[in-house]
């Protein structure tokens, strides 16, 4: 039976290839997405977090063999920054953690850019001159213990920072990927993750079922032939199961391979390093897909020879869809259940559409009526195809909707680009090269400062749209021209600043307390918070800004939130269109394989090429239009519910 299944796959290689692609698409999308996220999380953490260590405020005594770990001051010329340094012996090196040679140091990108140093430059770290051996995206600087063994517990400390700590190595187990942490962190976490598993199972089953109900509708004929030759039911079931598992395995393999290629290209483009491919995510999404294929392969063996669907099957889909939409916009506790209902309702709406096609068939022109009756007659195949289209469209367009909903509305800025350092510095001199490039593309900059940390510092100040949580903002009066302010308010504020009088945030129409000062009015220690450029970026420039953000040590983004919203929504919609088109094309391609017999009958009775072409197009439209119409209606309902 296994040989028969493989022979059948090769004989009908066209539909088998399309089925494999349909299996591969969701695996490619989800695994590449989680691999990119897993790599970002890993790079944001530090390799030493894979080690077990103890902390103490003083040296623990002889025989402990400690390595230093604490804050040191890094200087290059007149620029200085704070470094969190871990000094380790070379024996501590492993595949995740490399120790630089003596006399060198590995620096994080952010502080390196802040003091304007690159690979090969000399930097003074805690009074020890060392050469920059490499730059990495981790948070800590890695040094060789031989260069810092002479330091005692009196390391240079920044005010209000914790004292020096010591690190002892016990193990160097590699840190598992993020999804691995989720799965392996105990029974409670696994139970909490169960609803997500449910959504994954429903999504994969919803995409796997059409493969066999559409591509293998002919299997019912195979079933009859095998039954007539005396084949046992168990042997027939094994044949169907073997073919389903083979197609799923090929699709999953192709999806995993393409997900690695896509995620590797993405990380190389953004960061210039290799991706940490999340094999846990690969197993997480591949296992339900193969399981769903095994179940779906038995669909031709279920049910009788009913030629038309019962009328009641048109009800569950819309009911579940409306119920899910109502739940996701109530409270957060019902979000997961609402998403699951939307997924199930969208898949079952295929039966609703097929029932409506049977009702509309007598009212359509001849060829369109024949196509509608054909879809109604093969209701299992047609409803599965329409349900897959609805399922895919809802899953992808929902991402764009939620991205738009959760983006903040327009703030005090009207347009431009905002560049903010990722580390606290007093001057932008270290970022001179990056700022000069931004000025060439987006116009002259305005530097933004705050008058030192205050008790009110946090993410609640009036200048948070500028990336500043401090109460006082120190900059030039030209900033007022960039703010979304009435002309009268802007002129009054400029007049007060000209008189060396601070302008309160309430005078600018802001609810939270704060002050706007010019540099000649500020006193004390100024902290550089960022620079504002006047010209708004295009969609491609936003992509380039994101890439530059990873390597420049600064956070670069559009100053106006609506520009980011448009870019995210536009990119998501573009991806959704491509993804939905791929799913729709594969489903329709599978359907056309099965409709050749109908077209051959028309040809035998004298239908011309034009009529055959019209009939084929009608067959495709009978599946594509209901699926896209239901998806559009559900998306409109979700958008309307989000406004309530």
Automatic annotation (TrEMBL):
The keyword Ion transport does not apply. The chain crosses the membrane at residues 12-37, 196-217, 238-262, 282-301, 313-335, 341-361, 382-405, 572-593, 620-641. Keywords: Membrane, Transmembrane, Transmembrane helix. The keyword Repeat does not apply. This is ABC transporter permease. The lineage of its organism: Bacteria, Bacillati, Actinomycetota, Actinomycetes, Mycobacteriales.
């Amino acid at each position: 039976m296994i040989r028969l299944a493989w022979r059948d796959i090769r004989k009908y290689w066209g539909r088998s290839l399309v089925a494999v692609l349909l299996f591969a698409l969701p695996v490619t999308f989800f695994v590449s997405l989680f691999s990119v996220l897993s790599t970002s999380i890993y790079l944001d953490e530090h390799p030493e977090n894979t080690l077990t260590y103890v902390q103490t405020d003083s040296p623990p005594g002889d025989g402990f063999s400690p390595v230093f770990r604490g804050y040191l001051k890094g200087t290059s010329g007149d620029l200085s920054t704070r470094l969190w340094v871990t000094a380790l012996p070379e024996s501590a090196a492993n595949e995740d953690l490399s120790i630089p040679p003596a006399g060198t140091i590995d620096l994080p990108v952010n502080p390196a850019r802040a003091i304007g140093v690159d690979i090969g430059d000399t930097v003074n770290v805690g009074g020890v001159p060392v050469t920059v051996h490499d730059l990495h995206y981790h948070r800590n600087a890695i040094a060789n213990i031989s260069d810092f063994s002479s330091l005692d517990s009196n390391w240079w400390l920044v005010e209000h920072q914790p004292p020096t700590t010591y690190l002892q190595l016990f193990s160097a187990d590699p840190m598992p990927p993020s999804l691995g942490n989720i799965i392996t962190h105990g029974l409670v976490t696994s139970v909490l993750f169960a609803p997500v598993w449910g959504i994954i199972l429903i999504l994969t089953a919803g995409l796997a079922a059409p493969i066999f109900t559409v591509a293998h509708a002919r299997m019912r004929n195979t079933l009859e032939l095998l039954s007539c030759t005396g084949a046992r039911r168990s042997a027939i079931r094994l044949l169907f199961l073997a073919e389903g598992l083979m197609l799923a395995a090929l699709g999953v393999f192709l999806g995993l391979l393409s997900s690695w290629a896509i995620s590797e290209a993405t990380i190389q483009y953004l960061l210039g390093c290799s991706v940490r491919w999340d094999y846990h995510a690969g197993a997480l999404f591949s296992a339900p897909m193969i399981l769903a294929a095994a179940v779906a392969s038995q669909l031709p063996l279920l049910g009788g020879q009913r030629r038309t669907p019962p009328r009641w099957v048109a009800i569950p889909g819309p009911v579940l869809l409306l119920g899910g939409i109502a739940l996701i916009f109530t409270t957060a506790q019902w979000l997961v259940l609402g998403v699951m209902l939307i997924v199930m309702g969208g898949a079952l709406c295929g039966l609703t559409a097929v029932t409506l096609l049977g009702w509309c068939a007598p009212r359509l022109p001849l060829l369109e009526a024949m196509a509608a009756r054909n879809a109604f007659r093969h209701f299992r195949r047609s409803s599965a195809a329409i349900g897959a289209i609805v399922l895919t469209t809802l899953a992808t367009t929902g991402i764009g909707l939620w991205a738009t909903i959760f983006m903040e509305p327009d703030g005090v800025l009207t347009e431009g680009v905002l560049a903010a350092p990722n580390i606290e510095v007093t001057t932008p001199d270290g970022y001179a090269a990056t700022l000069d490039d931004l000025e060439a593309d987006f116009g002259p900059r305005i530097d933004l400062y705050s008058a030192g940390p205050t008790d009110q510092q946090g993410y609640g100040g009036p200048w948070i749209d500028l990336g500043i949580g401090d109460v006082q903002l120190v900059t030039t009066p030209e900033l007022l021209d960039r703010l979304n302010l009435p002309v009268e308010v802007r002129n009054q504020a400029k007049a007060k600043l000209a008189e060396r009088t601070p302008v309160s945030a309430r005078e600018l129409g802001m609810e939270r307390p704060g002050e706007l000062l010019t540099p000649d009015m500020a006193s004390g220690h100024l902290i550089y918070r960022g620079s504002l450029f006047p010209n708004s970026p295009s969609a491609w420039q936003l992509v380039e800004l994101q890439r530059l953000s990873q390597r420049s040590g600064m956070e670069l983004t559009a100053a106006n939130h609506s520009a980011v919203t448009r870019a995210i929504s536009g990119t998501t919609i573009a991806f959704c269109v491509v993804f939905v088109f791929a799913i729709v094309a594969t489903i329709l391609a599978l359907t056309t394989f099965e409709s050749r017999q109908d077209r051959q009958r028309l040809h035998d009775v004298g239908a011309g090429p034009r009529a055959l072409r019209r009939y084929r197009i009608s067959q495709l439209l009978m599946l594509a239009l209901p699926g896209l119409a239901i998806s559009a209606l559900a998306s409109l309902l979700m958008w309307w519910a989000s406004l309530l």
